[in-house]
């Protein structure tokens, strides 16, 4: 099942996908990993796993539209059935999101619809939340607003810091993202009329 993964940083979620497929738990073929940052550690992880890598620097493009078009052309060379955003820190154009509608997933570190955008861990602590977590969702043109596939939550303890909370959330990410991808690649998960559907149930 051909997949392209987009990253901007460490790539620990990419690693979780690689590990799960190496262990035979996830039947995907990661055709390529693309980063908008050449220094992203995730590119090294991909190299180590023998996966094709590309760095496509958004700063080399005149506009968001031009970057997204180049990115689309690059991705489509691999004919993926699923595009996985794994810490890809770029806002995408409507053309891009429409092109991959129903076949692009993102993972966002909050219990959506709460805390869209950045600095989610600190914002959840500052708001005095009792719990926090992570969401996998289909990508639509509105930022972090696509239909949620799967969430996992954790308690916020009284001495929690953004770093300690990020660690707990990351551990959850590495479980729920491979699982969501597995559902999609096995045909159990689809997007129908903007709504994530698992085994026929919204
Ligand atoms: C994760 O926290 C994810 O939820 C967010 O970006 C981070 C990526 O981490 N979208 P990594 O690069 O996979 O380690």
From TrEMBL:
The record marks 144 as: Raises pKa of active site His. Catalyzes the transfer of a formyl group from 10-formyltetrahydrofolate to 5-phospho-ribosyl-glycinamide (GAR), producing 5-phospho-ribosyl-N-formylglycinamide (FGAR) and tetrahydrofolate. Pathway: Purine metabolism; IMP biosynthesis via de novo pathway; N(2)-formyl-N(1)-(5-phospho-D-ribosyl)glycinamide from N(1)-(5-phospho-D-ribosyl)glycinamide (10-formyl THF route): step 1/1. GO terms for cellular component: cytosol. InterPro entries: Formyl_transf_N, Formyl_transf_N_sf, GART. Belongs to the GART family. Its EC number is 2.1.2.2. (6R)-10-formyltetrahydrofolate binds at residues 64, 89-92, 106. HAMAP family: PurN. Pfam families: Formyl_trans_N (PF00551). It catalyses: N(1)-(5-phospho-beta-D-ribosyl)glycinamide + (6R)-10-formyltetrahydrofolate = N(2)-formyl-N(1)-(5-phospho-beta-D-ribosyl)glycinamide + (6S)-5,6,7,8-tetrahydrofolate + H(+). The active site is at 108 (proton donor). One of its GO terms (biological process) is 'de novo' IMP biosynthetic process. This is Phosphoribosylglycinamide formyltransferase.
